[in-house]
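Researcher: Good morning. I'm working through a list of sequences from a screen, and I'd like to move beyond sequence-only analysis. For each chain I'm collecting a predicted structure so we can compare shapes side by side. This is the next one on the list. No need for commentary yet; just the structure.
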Amino acid sequence: MNATINWINRMKFIGESDTGHIVPIDASVKFGGDNLAPTPMEMVLIGLGGCTAMDVVKILKKSRQMIEDCTVQLKAEQHSEPPTVFTKIHLHYVITGRNISLDHVVKAIDLSGEKFCSVSKMIEHTARITRDF
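Model: Good morning. Structure tokens for this chain:
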């Protein structure tokens, strides 16, 4: 996997993945940006949410659960001094559908956190990650 980050101006950048997807990046006004796009740390948090949501949906669908929607709400705390890594992250899953088994939801969330979500496995080296639904 490869990516390229190109500087536009001030603190605005364009990130491009090797699959051709383009993502704007900016900094807050406090750090010289214009706050027009996610910061790199926001993108990491969004990446975590996207990674685990994809896992959970895939696992629930494979187990023939009639899932209709999945939302992951994330709350993160960062270290106050540089490097301002995440120290705590809480993921709250909201899963809706018909006749969904509570055991299947628990198993899907656990499997994502313990085995499948690569982003979670990277972040857990600096942050305590908790989950509920």
